Structure prediction request, 162 residues.
Amino acid sequence: MKYKITIKGAKQEKYLFLDIDGVMNSFDDYNMTGEEFLKKINDISFVISKKQIDLSNEIVEKYNPKIVLSSYWRTRYPIHKVNKIFKENGFKGVVIAKTDEKGEEHKDRWNQINRFIDKNNVRSYIILDDDSLGNEAKNHIKTDSYIGIQKEHIDKIKRMWK
Prediction:
């Protein structure tokens, strides 16, 4: 028999499930339309926007979340390569894990995140993604693919992680 021990007053670790395209950048950063981007995706690397890095660093500095990559790019690059690109662009966070690759990429993103949550007993999390993850996805902050993360999203995170 397994027992879970909870220490009263103990802080729960915070997890941030992070998408890249449409969160850490916008299609404008690629200098192409979304349609062109999808056609060329196998021949390009992801880009990071300075504005989105600065906003994301606010989250990292205030909450020090464990960052889990849920982006399509997790299938193309190992975590150390993603962290290298992030660091070169001034991101202060560190990606510690990525969601699994089971199912269809965008269609099953919530299922991929949910499996990680269940497997790792995650209690406090926020999902930053420009995809619509469905009604069952909790703690999802949806960004605009053409804009990326904005101040209003940071304000939502602050309210959720008081």
